[in-house]
Amino acid sequence: MNGKYTWTLRETLIVAVLGAVFAVLYLGWVQVWLIAQALFGPVTMDVVMGFWFVASIVAAAIIRKPGVAFATEVLTAAVQILLGNPAGLLLLVTGAVQGAGAEAVFAATRWRNYRLPVLMAAGVGAALFSFAYTWIRFDYGALAPGLLATMLVLRCLSGVLLGGLLGHVIVAALYRTGVLSGLAIDHAKRTARA
Fold it and tell me: CB–CB of 114/150 below 8 Å?
């Protein structure tokens, strides 16, 4: 099989580790959201939502293969369920939707471009997919058009900043440590320097 479509054991383990680490971080972020929502109201979810996309973006930028963004976000959701997230199994749908939104952007580049603008676009992709999902789940059609537009813009900006930009910063920091040596990101950076 083509190496672009198969994962090595190391890549699989990286997805598993990122899924577990971000599951814990995502659970902590729920507390941030709840406090902010109590202080600032319901649009707070859209402001902080981008952080819940970052696992897919980080994993995809490191491994650079089809399905990584989607699988990482689903795995992150599964681990959160095991850790006691009260959303239960519905969280798997949320993870799948968010991961699919990010994956769609990487697929549009044929999994060849992981520069910052693409990572930010992946954050927007996850935001748009998740917005469509929450529209259905929470009956957003009943909301005022102005509020809906504000929520969508805030969620997309959050996807850009807390998903794409933060993902880029995390990946760059990990790369500097040397732990990503030999992975697709390392090969791409070495080729770019040559």
Answer: no
